[in-house]
Write the structure tokens for this entry.
Amino acid sequence: MKKLLTLLLATIFLATTQTAQAQSGSMYPTDPQRICFNDGYYDYLFTNITTTGTKTLYATGSVIGVGNGTWTAELWVDFSAGGKTGTVEVHAVNPLMDGCTGGYTDSFIYTGNMTINYSGGVRTYSGGGGWTSFCSGSVFGTGTWYASGPCGAPGLVQNGTKPSDKNPAMTTGAGFKMNVAPNPVRNNTNISYKIPKTSSVNITIYNMMNQPVKVLVNENQSAGAHVANWTGVSNTGTKVPNGIYKVVAIVNGKPYSETIQVIQ
């Protein structure tokens, strides 16, 4: 009986100590069942979570609401510096991985910091940093991100957090649309696009080594519909080899991209 009572008291003490540590913020919760936050665009839900002591956290889950399916995601948070704030990295991957031909990037990566708070039995998550998006293995765009949780509740986004002015998952922006046809390209294709206002426009064909092949447009253009024609030749006038290329449009400093295939 004495041994049983001693064991019971030790168990209660250990549970009380762990709860107090979690609530005080001296360590992140060692038994999280779910991490959820919103970056102003999408919900991020992580339910497969592993931890190493009180130093690192790794989780897999989903990015919900992108528009072309549920993206897979991975989350790493390193708390080795101590406290309740750690360095964070999030990888999000397009389920289609179509070389950005469908209007969405192939993937994007968030890096920065995340804070996990625990109060009154509720865990909240906030963070921010920079992001990089990718098309066919090449950098497509960069920007900043801000996030707060729990997700699915925009009213709970903390003061000062807001989405970036660019959406890391998308290759098209408000008021700008680009279409390449025919694709695959056999000797000739048209790049049609619309701009909402007078803008600085550069449209260049790149190969998969990210080298410029042909500059099609480099000027200020008025609002409305435009078409740029490409006959499959380089800046030197020679036919380009068969393969995968990118049409990159930079409109007022913002990049947009479509992947094309050349068969000549």
Notes: The mean pLDDT is 77. The two ends are 87 Å apart (CA to CA). The helical segments are 2-24. The CA atoms of residues 179 and 192 lie 5 Å apart.
